[in-house]
């Protein structure tokens, strides 16, 4: 473990020991892991974490005992990222008024399923213990593509049986709708594999002039394509500190061909009402 990481580990351990001494550890853990009513909400937090380094493709691999998440973001982890992801409320995104993860607590939702998430990105290979402690002991360097970032979440939270965790996450992945990709600027494809090796995916295809197609393929072989009209604009906003920032706003309309209206249009034209 490098000097910076060792120093950070010791600082975090002091915080953990102090919380335990005061009886705060259970309350803080419950507060952070139960922050969202949707148990599988961490799926969206992981997508947001992949969006920020401009990943275009993300992959979930679900097994009976864990789930892995991999993305091809352009930027790999730095020490500041390690410091941020192991902190509470001290995110590298806190100065970004447009970022969902600006308060640095969203990632903690994974602890509803795991006690020891593992991260491999660039030169950093570590697991997180006690919510905030980075630890490299026993962590092997990932054999995966070194230009990718990989998260591994073993189902070792005693409050969430592995079978329950697997079922909830499988349900969450299969529930990803076509609108999941609509308002992400960089991610174009989400792929996932279930424990029985069945695969599903969502893909965004930009057709130009604001036209977007979303192709959804379900593990059961069902596939459909939805069509959208998408508009976005950058505007100046003032944050709570009185600072002006650029915020991107977007809106999308579903394009649906209604057979009855199309048939009525043909009838009206045939009878010269139009």
Automatic annotation (TrEMBL):
<dbReference type="InterPro" id="IPR052957">
    <property type="entry name" value="Auxin_embryo_med"/>
</dbReference>
<dbReference type="Pfam" id="PF25794">
    <property type="entry name" value="SACS"/>
</dbReference>
<protein>
    <recommendedName>
        <fullName>Sacsin/Nov domain-containing protein</fullName>
    </recommendedName>
</protein>
<dbReference type="InterPro" id="IPR058210">
    <property type="entry name" value="SACS/Nov_dom"/>
</dbReference>
<feature type="domain" description="Sacsin/Nov">
    <location>
        <begin position="34"/>
        <end position="150"/>
    </location>
</feature>
<dbReference type="InterPro" id="IPR036890">
    <property type="entry name" value="HATPase_C_sf"/>
</dbReference>
């Amino acid at each position: 473990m490098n000097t910076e990481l060792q120093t950070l580990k010791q600082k975090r351990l002091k915080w953990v020991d102090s919380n335990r001494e005061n009886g705060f550890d259970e309350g803080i853990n419950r507060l952070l892991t139960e922050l969202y009513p949707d148990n599988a909400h961490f799926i969206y937090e992981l997508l947001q974490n992949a969006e920020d380094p401009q990943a275009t493709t993300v992959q979930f691999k679900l097994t009976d005992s864990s789930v892995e998440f991999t993305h091809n973001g352009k930027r790999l982890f730095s020490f500041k990222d390690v410091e941020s992801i192991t902190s509470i409320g001290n995110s590298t995104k806190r100065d970004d008024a447009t970022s969902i993860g600006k308060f640095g607590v969203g990632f903690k939702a994974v602890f509803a399923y795991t006690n020891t998430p593992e991260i491999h990105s660039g030169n950093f290979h570590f697991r997180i213990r006690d919510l905030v402690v980075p630890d490299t002991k026993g962590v092997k360097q990932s054999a995966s593509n070194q230009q990718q970032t990989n998260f591994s979440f073993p189902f070792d939270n005693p409050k969430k049986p592995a079978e329950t965790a697997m079922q909830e996450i499988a349900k969450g992945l299969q529930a990803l709708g076509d609108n999941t990709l609509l308002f992400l600027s960089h991610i174009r494809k989400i792929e996932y594999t279930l424990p029985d090796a069945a695969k599903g995916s969502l893909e965004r295809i930009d057709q130009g002039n604001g036209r977007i197609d979303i192709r959804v393929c379900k593990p059961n072989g069902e596939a459909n394509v939805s069509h959208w009209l998408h508009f976005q604009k950058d505007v100046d906003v003032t944050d709570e500190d009185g600072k002006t920032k650029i915020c991107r706003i977007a809106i999308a309309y579903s394009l649906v061909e209604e057979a009855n209206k199309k048939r009525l249009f043909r009838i009206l034209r045939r009878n010269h009402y139009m």
